[in-house]
Amino acid sequence: MEPYEEGGFAFRSAVVGGRVPQEYVRAVEAGCRDALAEGPLGGHPVTGLRVTLTDGATHVKDSSDTAFRTAGRLGLREALRACAMVLLEPVVEVTVTVPEDAVGGVLGDLAARRGRVTGSVTRAGAAVVTATVPLAELFGYATRLRSRTQGRGTFTARPTGYAPAPVATPVR
């Protein structure tokens, strides 16, 4: 098991000599996918992982797809519990357009929402602020922005990826 920078999940078999038939290799992969769908951190899915099956053995009486799938699921669950995992949260890029006289309050509000301002320009009496903000912090933002700007502020948001969640973030 190792990090997979491209995100998602990658599985490969390095078993040599046919010690594990291909049908059972596929069952181990399915078991790993089962384990990743409900990870050890609050049951959230796990992503960014590459798993390599290095060896195995079959037994005439006890080997089955179900047995190998279960082995893959339980083995990966155990490995995940033993490693240093990081809980990630979705992050969005927001572009906020407000009257110039409201920009200070908007910057403060974004900072209070764990936002990181990445740019700010002023044109024709309006300020355009861009920032990255955890998605969880944006709930209620439209109402707050309208209130802060007397209905003259607007914003757009687009997903940009994931970032480590603070340790104090509750696992739901």
From TrEMBL:
Renumbered residue ranges of the record's region Disordered: 152-172
Domain Elongation factor EFG residue range list: 86-171
MF (Gene Ontology): GTP binding; translation elongation factor activity
UniProt GO BP: ribosome disassembly
A Pfam family assignment: EFG_IV
UniProt keyword terms in alphabetical order: Elongation factor, GTP-binding, Nucleotide-binding, Protein biosynthesis
Domain Translation elongation factor EFG/EF2: 1-84
InterPro entries: EFG_III/V, EFG_V, EFG_V-like, Ribosomal_Su5_D2-typ_SF, Ribsml_uS5_D2-typ_fold_subgr, Transl_elong_EFG/EF2_IV
Entry keyword annotation includes Transmembrane helix: no
Protein name: Putative Elongation factor G 2
Organism: Streptomyces afghaniensis 772
